[in-house]
Amino acid sequence: MIIDGTQIAAGIQEELIHEVKQLKDKHHLTPGLATILVGDDPASRIYVSMKKKACEKIGIHYEEHTFPGDVKEENVIRLIQKLNQDEKIHGILVQLPLPSHLNEPSVLCSIAPEKDVDGFHPANMGRLLAGDESTPPCTPSGIITLLEKTGIKIAGKHAVVVGRSNIVGKPVAAMLLNRDATVTICHSKTKDLERYTGQADILVVAIGRAKFITEEMVKDGVAVIDVGINRVGGKLYGDVDFERVKEKASTITPVPGGVGPMTVAMLMKNTVTAAKNALK
Ligand code: NDP
Questions:
Q1: Which residue range is the domain that position 54 belongs to?
Q2: What is the DSSP letter of 240?
Q3: 253 and 143 share a domain?
Q4: Is residue 13 part of a domain?
Q5: Would the CB of 139 count as within 6 Å of ligand 1?
Q6: Domain contains 133
Q7: Which residues are catalytic?
Q8: DSSP assignments along 7-59, one per residue
Q9: Residue to mutate (ligand 1; options 188, 212, 226, 232; most atoms within 8 A of CB)
Q10: Are residues 143 and 107 part of one domain?
């Protein structure tokens, strides 16, 4: 089975349209998202514009703040502090990566944890590790939702995560563990990678190398979630050799159209949840 992330994400967006309408009708509350873009990285511009489009579709108030690539860190943090106090804004998202002269942890730490809809604030990361998923990071949360909506059981399975970044690998491993999977995390220093990938019931790959996982590296019946987005010759490829691995997998996500649309849907969901929490 090929998992249709676009369709599942569209279903979530439909539910959110309904929820936002209810918040407006019953509580006169419009959820609000502010994005902060530093510099003019073309990929970051595309990601921010996708978020804007999704907000418009769902009825979320959207604000975009842009800074030149050489902005001083204190100016970015000052804006975040202002947005932390702004009642119209329930979610603040700093588009990553930031230029290297900015200290990413300091910038992310200045977002109020209750407005951290990306789930990257250390307080929210810590909560996730402790089993509290009230603000889960978007891509990991999208991965778990894809598994759950496709009826793939997680408890008791051996889940192998390839990649250990703070935004995908580590948090998705924690979320799989929270759901009683037995989790193995692999990375660039892992020796004999195929020994681990070949044991996976659920294989999540987030490394950023086109078609890196081949059919020899997986067992029959594996469920594969391919997070990678790699542009080669103007075309997008995942980290998994989709055409070959799909012959062995029970379930697999395509690239594009798998995890990508879920990331945006989960960001919208986190923003609506943050607005509901503000009501409380
Ligand atoms: P990072 O570059 O931050 O992390 C890559 C990870 O992969 C690292 O942990 C690295 O190991 C590991 N790795 C690299 N090469 C190998 C290898 N040969 N064998 C085993 N492990 C390896 O990437 P991200 O986590 O940010 O992103 C990964 C991919 O997912 C990218 O293609 C990115 O574009 C995509 N992505 C997609 C999203 C979506 O919405 N679909 C969202 C976010 C990312 P080490 O730690 O040892 O260096």
A1: 28-112
A2: B
A3: yes
A4: no
A5: yes
A6: no
A7: 51, 95, 118
A8: HHHHHHHHHHHHHHHHHHHHH----EEEEEEES--HHHHHHHHHHHHHHHHHT
A9: 188
A10: no
> pLDDT by residue (tens digit) across 248-258?
999 999 999 99
Distance CA 274, CA 171 (A): 20
Give how many domains the chain has, as a whole number.
Answer: 2
At 50, which CATH number? 3.40.50.10860
pTM as predicted? 0.97
Q: Which pLDDT score is estimated for 280?
A: 86
**Atom 41 in ligand 1: which residue has the minimum CA distance?**
260
Task: Tell me the residue type at 9.
Answer: A
Cβ(20)–Cβ(272) below 8 Å = yes
- Per-residue tokens: 240: 């998994």
Are 76 and 179 within one domain?
Answer: no
Q: With a 6 A CB cut-off, is 187 part of the ligand 1 pocket?
A: yes
- 217 in any annotated domain: yes
Which helix (H) or strand (E) segment holds residue 197: the answer is helix 193-197
Separation between Cα atoms, residue 54 and residue 218, nearest integer Å = 35
Same domain, 64 and 104: yes
Whichever domain contains 215, its CATH number is: 3.40.50.720
Nearest atom in ligand 1 to the alpha carbon of residue 262 is 40
Q: What is the mean pLDDT of residues 77-93?
A: 98
CA distances from 152 to 12, 70, 204, 221, 245 (A): 18, 46, 13, 12, 18
